[in-house]
C-alpha cells in the first residue's frame, strides 16, 4: 500500500472539529481542499513530522519548524496510543477518521488530549449545562434528524457539550436532516 499524504494524528481531531470561524481566508481554503482530497479514498501515513495541514499554519516558522512542536507531538503520541497506531503506519483515510471517532470522539477523550490547545474553544465549550437534548438516528441509512421520524431511534444528551461532541464526531458519517 502506497500512501498519498502524511498526516499528524492530532490533525484527525482538527478535521473533525474544523470550523471556518478563526482561520485566515487563505488557510480556510487550504484546509477545505485538503479535506476534500483526503475524502477521495486516500491512503495516509501517520507521522509525527510536519504534514499537509502545517503548510500555511500560523505556528509554522520561516525555517519550516513548528513553534508549538513539543505540545503537538504530545497530542500526536496520545492519539497514536488511543487508536493503537504506530508512527509511519499506513491506513486508508476512512479508517483513520473512523478510528479517531471510535477511540476518541465517541468516548469524549478530547479534553485528555488537547485541552491546552489554542483552538479548543472551537472544539468544545466547558461547563455549559442545559436540559436534555434529543435527536433521532437512522443507523441503516446513516441519517440524523432533530425531528421525530418514523423508524429512527431517539438519542438523548444531558448537555450541549455531549451533543456537540456527538455531532462533530458523526460529521461526514451521517447525513443531517
Name the descriptors.
177 residues; alpha/beta; 4-stranded mixed sheet
Can you tell me about this structure?
By secondary structure, the chain is α/β, with parallel strands linked by helices. It has 2 domains: 5-118, no CATH class; 133-176, no CATH class. The chain has a 4-stranded mixed β-sheet with strand order 6-4-5-7. The protein contains 7 helices and 7 strands; from the N terminus they run βααβαβαααβββαβ. A hairpin with a 4-residue loop joins strand 4 (133-138) and strand 5 (143-145). Pfam families: DUF1284.
Compact description:
The chain is an alpha/beta fold. The chain is built from 7 helices and 7 strands, in the order βααβαβαααβββαβ.
Chart the SSEs and their pairings.
Layout: E1 5-7, H1 10-16, H2 25-39, E2 43-46, H3 69-83, E3 90-92, H4 93-105, H5 110-114, H6 120-123, E4 133-138, E5 143-145, E6 153-157, H7 160-170, E7 175-176
Parallel strand pairs: 1-2, 5-7
Antiparallel strand pairs: 2-3, 4-5, 4-6
Quickly count the helices: 7
Q: Give, in spatial order, the strands making up the sheet with the most strands.
A: 6-4-5-7
SSE order, as H and E?
EHHEHEHHHEEEHE
List how many beta strands DSSP finds: 7
Task: List the uncertain runs.
Answer: 125-131
Q: Which shape, going by the Cα principal axes?
A: globular
Residues in helix, %:
25-40%
Write down the Rg.
17 Å
What composes the largest sheet? 4 strands, mixed
In terms of DSSP E residues, the strand content is: 5-15%
What gap, in angstroms, lies between the N and C termini? 37 Å
Mean pLDDT over all positions:
84
Structural class: alpha/beta
Task: Estimate nothing, just give the exact number of structural domains.
Answer: 2
Protein name: DUF1284 domain-containing protein
Pfam families: DUF1284 (PF06935)
InterPro entries: DUF1284
Amino acid at each position: 500500500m502506497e500512501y498519498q499524504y502524511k498526516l499528524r494524528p492530532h490533525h484527525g481531531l482538527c478535521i473533525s472539529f474544523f470550523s471556518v470561524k478563526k482561520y485566515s481566508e487563505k488557510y480556510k481554503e487550504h484546509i477545505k481542499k485538503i479535506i476534500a482530497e483526503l475524502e477521495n479514498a486516500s491512503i495516509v501515513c501517520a507521522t509525527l513530522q510536519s504534514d499537509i495541514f502545517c503548510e500555511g499554519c500560523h505556528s509554522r516558522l520561516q525555517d519550516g519548524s513548528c513553534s508549538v512542536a513539543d505540545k503537538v507531538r504530545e497530542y500526536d503520541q496520545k492519539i497514536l496510543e488511543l487508536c493503537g497506531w504506530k508512527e509511519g503506519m499506513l491506513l486508508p483515510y476512512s479508517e483513520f477518521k473512523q478510528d479517531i471517532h471510535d477511540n476518541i470522539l465517541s468516548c469524549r477523550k478530547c479534553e485528555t488530549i488537547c485541552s491546552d490547545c489554542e483552538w479548543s474553544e472551537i472544539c468544545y465549550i466547558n461547563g455549559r449545562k442545559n436540559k436534555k437534548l434529543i435527536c433521532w438516528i437512522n443507523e441503516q441509512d446513516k441519517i440524523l434528524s432533530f425531528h421525530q421520524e418514523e423508524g429512527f431511534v431517539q438519542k438523548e444528551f444531558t448537555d450541549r457539550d455531549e451533543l456537540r461532541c456527538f455531532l462533530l464526531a458523526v460529521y461526514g458519517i451521517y447525513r443531517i436532516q
